[in-house]
Amino acid sequence: MCSMRFVFKIGTSLLTNEHGQLNVDFLRGIIAQMAEVQKQGNEVVLVSSGAVASGRSELHFEHEKKNLSPRPGALPFRQALAAVGQGVLMETYRAFFKEHGVTVAQALLTNYDFTNRENFLNTKNVFSMLLSNGVIPVVNENDVTTIAELKFGDNDMLSAKTAGMISADYLCILTDVDGLFEEDPKRNPHAKFIASAPLIDDEVRARAGGARSGRSMGGMITKLAAAEYIISVGTSMVIVNGRKKNILASAVALCKKHAARPKAMQLMRPKGAPFPGDPKVGTFFPSSVNRIESQKKWMRPKIHKNAWIEVDAGARKALTQLGKSLLPSGIIGVHGDFVRGDVVTIKDIQGNIGYGQVNYDAKDLDKIKKCHTDKIEKILGYSFEDEAIHRDRMVIAK
């Protein structure tokens, strides 16, 4: 089986103990499992909660002398705790991953990084560079500079947006329950477990009213919201109990079992015949769309109406027959005004070839057209990417 890209999200309820302190024993164990997943040839991204809880632990007896508000619901207080706790959390991750020879990188994101096209491209490119060099990005919200993001819901939606941005194969959310149940298992220990949820409707949402923990801002309802988002962009998701022994190996095995099924079977959703999940692992949410179709749906309304890129015959062949990215050397004309991150049509003398998200402004692309990639930095003074439009952000017309 070829390597896959996984995003693992760990919630506060697992990262901290009942006293609000970092659970270092859990962290050391789960990091060892994550390092093993990477060692098997997979790419790994970690989305971590716990900054606020870590800060609270660090300043537990000092908030008054530090003039921090003691009210746990006050946003400035939570942001101050996050500012202190993020360093504590990151240092713990760095030390534990280093035991396995793994380098980590910190990535603090906000909603703006997913909605602004240039920020989105920059962030995606950085993640691609980190992953290609075997580095595990550790993602958290930039709580210090934002307000709304503190209400994300225990980073569940952040993990889904991150997985979607980097086109992850699977998102795995680790929590303190086994997955989705027909009733809250903390209230009814005999509640029926749901091994697979191919459709997320009002009935499923009604079953997700489980209470959040005292240390966590999320609950099952936020995880369902994350699942609803991520399966709509072509990535599957699984919710697992992070305290189960060797849970990541089991989760990866379940995902690979799903990946081995024919694409047609993966996307079939006949009522009463869901994907056969594994109750010993967690609740599986199979993607509801093909990723290419999802990308088309996202890009099509964003196509720049008054701008296009003209390419030569060699570029047409590379794009339509060889599945290659569009390089500056294949561009012979840049028409109209557009900025980095815009979606622009690709044409040649025969007509439309497709469309894609550009890595350079029109004026810069015009300067480097017909040039080899090793000339980009010399001409512009900088280089974002070798490609004018990367294959992963391109749709070819049929």
Outline the fold blueprint:
Layout: E1 5-10, H1 12-15, H2 24-39, E2 43-48, H3 51-58, H4 75-98, E3 104-109, H5 112-115, H6 117-132, E4 136-141, H7 156-165, E5 170-175, E6 180-181, E7 193-194, H8 202-206, H9 220-231, E8 236-241, H10 247-259, H11 263-267, E9 282-285, H12 291-299, E10 303-311, H13 313-320, E11 331-335, E12 343-348, E13 351-357, H14 362-368, H15 376-380, E14 394-396
Kindly report how far apart the N and C termini lie: 29 Å
Question: Can you write the helix and strand succession as a string?
Answer: EHHEHHEHHEHEEEHHEHHEHEHEEEHHE
What would you give as the CATH superfamily of the largest domain?
Acetylglutamate kinase-like
- How many beta-strand segments? 14
Mean pLDDT, nearest integer? 85
Low-pLDDT runs of 5+ residues are 210-217, 269-273
Overall form? globular
> What helical percentage do the residues reach?
25-40%
Return the structural class: alpha/beta
The appropriate CATH architecture of the largest domain is: 3-Layer(aba) Sandwich
What's the arrangement of strands in the largest beta sheet? 3-4-2-1-5-8-9
The largest sheet, given as strand count, sense and whether it forms a barrel, is:
7 strands, mixed
Number of discrete helical segments: 15
- CATH class bucket of the largest domain: Alpha Beta
CATH topology of the largest domain, by name, is Carbamate kinase
Q: How many individual domains? A: 2
Strand fraction equals 15-25%
| Rg | 23 Å
Provide a brief overview of the structure.
With 398 residues, the chain is an alpha/beta fold.
